[in-house]
Amino acid sequence: MSRYVIEVANLTKIYRRQVKEAGLIESVKSIFKPLYEEVEALRGVSFNVGEGEIVGYIGPNGAGKTTTLKILAGVLFPTEGEVRVLDEIPYKRSKKFLSKVSFIMASRGFLEEVAWDLPVLDGFYFIKEIYNLSYSEYKNRVDKLSEMMKIEDILKSPVRNLSHGQRKKAEIVANLLWEPKLILLDEPTLGLDIFSQNELHNFLKEYVKDYNATVMLTSHNMKDIEKCASRVIMIDKGRKLYDGDIEGLKKKIFGRKFIKICFDEVFDENIEKKLLSVEGVAVISKEENCLTISAEESISKDVAKEILNKYNISDIEIMEPTLEEVVYRFYSEGKEND
């Protein structure tokens, strides 16, 4: 038995799609003599994911994120390469595999498709029957997961009467009733308010801790990744560009920390000149009595101590770049180098 939940080696996925010129004549031609082009969605991607990990899978639109999740879920066949999930080949979709994996997409889910006019609990009961759960298993899981996700008050409401956020949370509970060991999440907080986002972040971490599950999530909301994941995999144009922890990514891209200094009085320009004379220090912004500088990480603590010792300040804060800033810079620099 493998020590990894997900094993991906040299994964490539090529789509074949029809192309045609605009206009009626070209449309008629395409019926009798269709033309196709090949689109390489994934190019030689390799990675492993261990039990209990929460991994953020990051990339711009069209990078290959959802394609990867669909292959891991067994929805798509890989064109080349090897993929194993929980010691199973996903596209064979064995009963054992399907009983251990949950794929929660950003689009309409099970409850919306199957139980739209029914109470949430009836939708949950369908899943109990599909996965052949005993009543005690079903009851205990509904009670526990509903409490964790804070949806106890909507269980008897028809799905169509719920807000988008309530449906999203109910959908996630529905997809965890069979206690999957691997959860694949595609844009889990899309359309959720900040309170619901925070509840979902806490829920995911608690679920992984309680059930030792593995989560792989894609999101354009970097707070999802920063709050939940300990590791990120970054791809673009179907190729893997980075695989490691978030702190390592920040050091790789920035290698600097930001220091915001607020002085007791309006600061003198001589102070700015003295700070700039230190190698590795740069001024980021200036306000009436505050100055924000950046310093190389290796000297940031020494710079902060020197400021505290030499100047009369009312406040000082050492800040790190947000993951959103890091990811934006990572892909921006990549485009400039293309």
Q: Briefly, what CATH class of the largest domain?
A: Alpha Beta
Residues in helices, as a percent range: 25-40%
Q: What's the number of domains?
A: 2
What coarse outline follows from CA principal-axis ratios?
Answer: globular
Summarize the main sheet.
6 strands, mixed
Which structural class do you get from the secondary structure elements? alpha/beta
Alpha-carbon Rg, integer: 25 Å
> What is the assigned CATH homologous superfamily of the largest domain?
P-loop containing nucleotide triphosphate hydrolases
Notes on the structure:
The protein has 338 residues and is of the alpha/beta class. The protein has two domains: 4-10 and 46-250, Rossmann fold (3-Layer(aba) Sandwich), CATH 3.40.50.300; 256-320, 2-Layer Sandwich (Alpha-Beta Plaits). Helix content is 38%, strand content 29%. The protein contains 13 helices and 13 strands. The protein has helices at 24-32, 65-72, 95-98, 110-114, 120-130, 135-149, 164-174, 194-211, 222-228, 246-253, 269-276, 300-310, 323-337, and strands at residues 4-19, 35-50, 54-58, 80-85, 101-104, 182-186, 214-218, 231-236, 239-245, 256-263, 281-286, 290-296, 313-319. The strands form three sheets. The chain has a six-stranded mixed sheet, with helices on both faces. Strands 11-12-10-13 form a four-stranded antiparallel sheet, covered by helices on one side. Strands 2-1-4 form a three-stranded antiparallel sheet, with helices on one face. Strand 11 (281-286) and strand 12 form a beta hairpin. Helix 6 packs antiparallel against helix 7 and helix 10 crosses helix 13. The relative contact order is 0.12. The mean pLDDT is 88.
